[in-house]
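Customer escalation, tier 2.

The customer says the design service returned an amino acid string that "doesn't look like it belongs to this structure." They asked us to rerun it and document both sides in this ticket. The original structure tokens are below, unchanged.
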């Protein structure tokens, strides 16, 4: 219960900050009465949330199952809620018709229910087909990145671990995202490009004790195109990353030992 209260308080702090900013803007820009101002505020704010309670069983006594490498608590032997369970809250503020601000916080049992800021971006619609997002948004590397963690909205109960575990450990990226939506011949096309960076805590589960490393992916970018017609969607993408860096005290000690061995071998 204390964990749930902590999550709620942290998410409320994000919401309060957005509400205070919104109130200040509206008070100084709308020449209306207090009641009309509050009605205007209410119409521009939308709260939403999602949650999944997933129970898994692991018959391996020697190894735990993981969702990605940023997961702190594995799903050990027996039943566990650490793998798929998630709680998320989202605030969307639309001060202008084509301008919106989105803030989303997520907590998982696999990470001790610590609230994490998944999204915090400004979105500007340009005409009917173009839009740009600036700030923090979900990792755009894969087809179902935007709905990752949102219950079982994706096409399978859990994305393939071999493909999604590593890059999807960085669940959010900070940067800019451009989208172009166009329809032709009963086909919906989405072309997307992004550039930015991200960071997360990487857990090396093959060490005892488990090593935690501060990991950063910088100068990352990509472009993708999706074509949807009836019940079929085709997608092609190209992604890249300029630098991948991991730092921890244990890794520094290991690098120092390797450097000493190299010096000895040279002598």
């Amino acid at each position: 219960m204390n964990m749930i209260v902590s999550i709620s308080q942290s998410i409320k702090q994000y919401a309060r900050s957005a509400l205070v900013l919104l109130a200040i803007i509206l008070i100084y820009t709308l020449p209306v009465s207090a009641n009309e101002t509050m009605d205007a505020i209410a119409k521009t704010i939308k709260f939403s949330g999602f949650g999944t309670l997933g129970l898994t069983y692991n018959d391996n006594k020697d190894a735990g199952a993981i969702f990605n490498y940023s997961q702190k608590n594995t799903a050990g032997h027996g039943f566990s809620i650490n793998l798929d369970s998630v709680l998320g809250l989202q605030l969307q503020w639309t001060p202008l018709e084509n301008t919106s601000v989105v803030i989303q916080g997520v907590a998982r049992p696999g990470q001790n229910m610590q609230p994490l800021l998944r999204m915090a971006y400004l979105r500007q619609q340009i005409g009917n087909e173009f839009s740009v997002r600036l700030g923090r948004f979900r990792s755009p590397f894969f087809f179902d990145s935007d709905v990752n963690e949102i219950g079982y909205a994706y096409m399978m109960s859990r994305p393939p671990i071999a493909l999604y575990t590593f890059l999807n450990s960085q669940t959010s990226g900070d940067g800019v995202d451009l989208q172009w939506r166009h329809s032709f011949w009963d086909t919906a096309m989405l072309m997307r490009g992004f550039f930015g960076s991200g960071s997360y805590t990487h857990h090396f589960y093959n060490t005892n004790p488990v090593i935690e490393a501060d990991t950063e992916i910088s100068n990352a970018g990509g472009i993708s195109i999706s074509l949807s017609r009836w019940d079929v969607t085709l997608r092609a993408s190209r992604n890249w990353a300029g630098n991948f860096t991991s730092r921890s005290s244990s890794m520094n000690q290991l690098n120092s030992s390797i450097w000493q061995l190299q010096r000895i071998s040279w002598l």
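Tier 2 assessment: The sequence is consistent with the input. The first helix runs from residue 2 to 29. The chain has a mean pLDDT of 77. Sent an explanation to the customer and offered a walkthrough call.
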